[in-house]
Design goal:
- This is RBR-type E3 ubiquitin transferase.
- By secondary structure, the protein is of the alpha+beta class.
- The chain has three domains: 142 residues, Ribonuclease H-like superfamily/Ribonuclease H (Nucleotidyltransferase, domain 5, 2-Layer Sandwich), CATH 3.30.420.10; 68 residues, Zinc/RING finger domain, C3HC4 (zinc finger) (Herpes Virus-1, 2-Layer Sandwich), CATH 3.30.40.10; 65 residues, no CATH class.
- 32% of the residues lie in helices and 18% in strands.
- The protein has a five-stranded mixed sheet, with helices on both faces. Strands 10-11-12 form a three-stranded antiparallel sheet. It has a two-stranded antiparallel ribbon with strand order 6-7.
- A hairpin with an 8-residue loop joins β8 and β9.
- The longest helix is centred in the N-terminal third of the chain and has 18 residues.
Length: 353
């Protein structure tokens, strides 16, 4: 069901495109498009059903965007702002510089959108809250209401389609059992993408959070256990322990094959002698000196050991050479090494964020 009116002006002023694709009960889907002038006056509006089986939310949004851009180009508009309230769409049109080579429905729609945008002199995507696209939302909602011939409240009809789309890899043919739901916020991603996300965050030394834009929900080890390899589980447990021990209280076993994390405060309780502070590693059992942070120096006090070993060890020298080669920098507070992988030259240690 379509409705609209044309606008023949070829004014160079910036216009705005609002669009929305919705998926409702029984896979019914609809779209709404509104094009506004620089005073936010409506120049064109259109709505209609989306036909097809197993339409996903991402597909519906792309269809709405494609239709809106097509109509804007037909009106002779040269400069347009594209308002998005669905972050996967915003991310696609903001950062996609190349045509997608895959031959699936989503990839073809992405390429169509890119091709249409190239006909404008300028087109800028803007990410906004959902209530900012009220024109398009109401048009899409009206289509679905008309199609199912009954009035419903928005929260009842906007629900997950039978086939899901992962917002990270954009695979649009995923079954419910292939999706992972983040416990606290209920954002959905495919299990394979979540495995990679968790691994990257653990390698960065962080406890993983939900990857949804702006979401700060922490993920729990228990809810992700089925996605973890034994190595990743060990890393996660280590990160949790690191976060529970203040930076100034952390002590790592100096044995290269161990490097277990311990608390100096806890170790001090078990030190055999108050002055030399001898203790044992909680993991490998190696005798250690807390003061010198080295394996236990038998028959030597800490002062005597430092006097006999004023220079760094061979391993310390090798590590220093590697750090210089890789351009690592050491935090002056916690002594951890940091590496600049991208961005500006300013580096902030994660322990002091």
């Amino acid at each position: 069901m379509l409705k609209g009116f044309t606008h023949s002006s070829t004014s160079p002023q910036l216009c705005s495109l609002y669009f929305k694709g919705l998926v409702g009960d029984d896979s019914l889907a609809g779209f709404g498009v509104a094009i506004c002038g620089h005073r936010d006056d409506i120049l064109f509006q259109l709505n209609g059903p989306i036909h097809g089986s197993d339409i996903t939310v991402l597909e519906a949004e792309l269809i709405a965007l494609k239709r809106g851009l097509t109509e804007a180009a037909g009106l002779g508009i040269d400069h347009i702002s594209i308002y998005c309230d669905y972050y996967p769409i915003y991310e696609l049109i903001s950062f996609s510089g190349r045509f997608v080579t895959e031959e699936n429905k989503i990839a073809l729609l992405i390429n169509d959108v890119k091709r249409i945008r190239e006909g404008f002199k300028s087109s800028f995507p803007i990410f906004v809250a959902g209530n900012s696209i009220r024109y398009a939302y109401e048009l899409a909602r009206a289509t679905i209401v008309s199609e199912i011939r009954r009035h419903v409240d928005p929260p009842r009809y906007v629900k997950l389609a039978k086939k899901s789309t992962c917002p990270i890899c954009f695979d649009d043919d995923l079954k419910a059992e292939e999706m992972f739901c983040v416990g606290k916020c209920c954002h959905l991603y495919c299990s394979e993408c979540m495995k990679r996300h968790i691994e990257v965050k653990l390698l960065e030394g962080r406890v993983p959070r939900c990857p949804h834009y702006g979401c700060k929900s922490n993920m729990t080890l228990g809810s992700c256990a089925h996605l973890l390899t034994p190595k990743l589980r060990e890393m996660w447990e280590r990160n949790i322990k690191e976060d529970s021990i203040p930076v100034w209280d952390r002590f790592y076993c100096p044995k290269p094959s161990c490097s277990a994390l311990m608390s100096i405060t806890e170790l001090s309780k078990w030190a055999r002698e108050a002055e030399v502070r001898r203790c044992c590693c909680i993991k490998c059992g190696e005798s250690l000196c807390i003061n010198c942070k080295v394996p236990w120096h038998n028959n030597l006090s800490c002062n005597e050991y430092k006097r006999l070993h004023p220079n760094p060890t061979e391993n310390d020298e090798k590590f220093k050479d590697l750090a210089n080669q890789k351009m690592w920098r050491q935090c002056g507070k916690c002594q951890h090494m940091t590496e600049l992988s991208e961005g500006c030259i300013k580096v902030t240690c994660r322990y002091h964020l």
